[in-house]
Amino acid sequence: MKSVLITFDQAYFERIIALLDRLNCRGFSYLEKVQGRGSKTGDPHFGSHAWPSMCSAILTVVDDNKVDPLLDTLHKMDLETEQLGLRAFVWNIERTI
């Protein structure tokens, strides 16, 4: 399993929830009004793809075989409206309780 953190503008909320449901993800934690800073190139800046434009994040657990379909769909969503700065971060889950 993998842990996936998705940061996004609120405009994506319904689409992301529907995507997680469609992929039968095990559940998620929803965080409103997150703040941060970053860009595609890694250089901090404001404007397109700047984290301050994002206002929400979802932390979810995803089966290994569903990570690629999730990221592919999120990437397509980001290409449609790049100014909204959708991002996803994935890491291994080593242990749970």
Could you characterize what this model shows?
There is one protein chain. By secondary structure, the protein is of the alpha+beta class. It has a four-stranded antiparallel sheet, with helices on one face. It has one domain: Alpha-Beta Plaits, CATH 3.30.70. The radius of gyration is 13 Å and the shape is globular. Helix content is 28%, strand content 26%.
Write the layout of secondary structure elements.
Blueprint: E1 2-8, H1 13-22, E2 28-32, E3 56-62, H2 64-80, E4 87-92
Antiparallel strand pairs: 1-3, 1-4, 2-3
| Binned strand content | 25-35%
Broad structural category: alpha+beta
List the uncertain runs: 45-50
The overall pLDDT, averaged over residues, is 81
Share of helix among residues?
25-40%
Main sheet characteristics: 4 strands, antiparallel
Key features?
97 residues; alpha+beta; Alpha-Beta Plaits; four-stranded antiparallel sheet; 4 strands; globular
Give a concise summary.
This protein has 97 residues and is α+β, with helices and mostly antiparallel strands. The chain has one domain (1-90): Alpha-Beta Plaits, CATH 3.30.70. The chain contains two helices and four strands, in the order βαββαβ.
